[in-house]
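Example 3.2
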Amino acid sequence: MFRIEERALDGVVVLRPDVYEDRRGFFMESYRADHLRELGLPGEFPQDNHSRSTRGVVRGLHFQYDPPLAKLMRVTFGSALLVAVDIRIGSPTLGQWYGVEVSAENKRQVWAPPGFARGFCVMSDVAELQYKCTTFWNPKGEGVVLWSDPAIGIKWPVENPILSDKDSRAQTLAQWLASPQAQAFRYGA
C-alpha cells in the first residue's frame, strides 16, 4: 500500500510505501497499479529506466512534450535530491520548483506529471535511480531547461556539478515558454 506523504505544485506527489522490516531486511511493494489508481495516479507505465551517477552529478531539468510524459521516480541505492519544476503555461505555480531528498533508506517515491521538468543531484558517493514513465521515450519530443536558470532559483546541494553537454547547454525557462512546443503544456487543458 502507498500513502501520500506530501503534495506540491499542483501535481507533484511524494509517496511512501508500506515497508515491512525485520532482522533479515525489508520487503515492500515498489509498484502496484491498483493502489496508484486509487490515489489518482496512472497505474500503467510502458517504460522503466534505471540510471547510476556519482556524487555531484546533476541531471536535468528534463521533460518530454511529444507525447507528454510523466514519471514515478525512486532511489534504489544512495541518495539524491529529486526536483520538479512547473513549466505549464498559465499555471499558478509556473516556474516554481519543489525538491525532496529521496534515498534507498527512506524509500520515498516522487510522482511528477506531464508539464514538469525533472532533475536530480546525487548526494551520496553513488546513487541509482529508477523511474517509471507513462509513455515511451521520444528523442524528437524531449526538452531540457537549464539546471541553474536564475529565474527558477533551485537550491542545489552542489556548487560545481558534473553535467552532460546537453544539460550544460540547455535553454532557459523563458526560452522554452517562447517556443511553439511549450503549447503542449497548457495548465488546465
